[in-house]
Amino acid sequence: MAGADLAFEAGAEHASEAGERFVAESEGQGYYRPLWVEEPADRRRLPDPVRTAAVRAVIIIAVTLIQAMVAFLCTLAGSWLAFPMVLSSVASTVVATWGALDVWVTRQVWNQRNGVVSEPSSTARALRRERRKARRQERTAERAKERIRRRGGGAGQLSHS
Questions:
Q1: How far apart, in whole angstroms, are the C-alpha atoms of residue 86 and residue 71?
Q2: From CA 125, how far away is CA 137, in angstroms rounded?
Q3: Which of 109, 102, 116 is nearest to 54 (CA)?
Q4: This prediction's pTM
């Protein structure tokens, strides 16, 4: 233990700021150093339906790999369980392929419905902008019609009194 302390003290002379804080803490100065530092994510997290499909696919694929390994080992051992395990592995492979395709399809559907807004050239953003503009124009037209109706239609009226 004493050798480790000596090695630490020798390394502490050339330590970074974090190391110096640890030395200060061990001397009783009471500095708290967090276990990790949170960094901002490079990418946005997956939407909930896509993430759910991805988790489901990973679990199915993991079970399929385990089944294939057990089938292989049962075949090597000459066990009676080898044939049923091979059949279930083939069925699981079909299900795992479906799971992987489900992730892809779910992501495509989500992107189509909600639009890809991460890029400045996103077509979904332009479409939304056009829809907002059309709704705004409809609202102003409705307000103008309502204003005319409240005034009595404006027919034959020369003043606002």
A1: 5
A2: 18
A3: 102
A4: 0.49
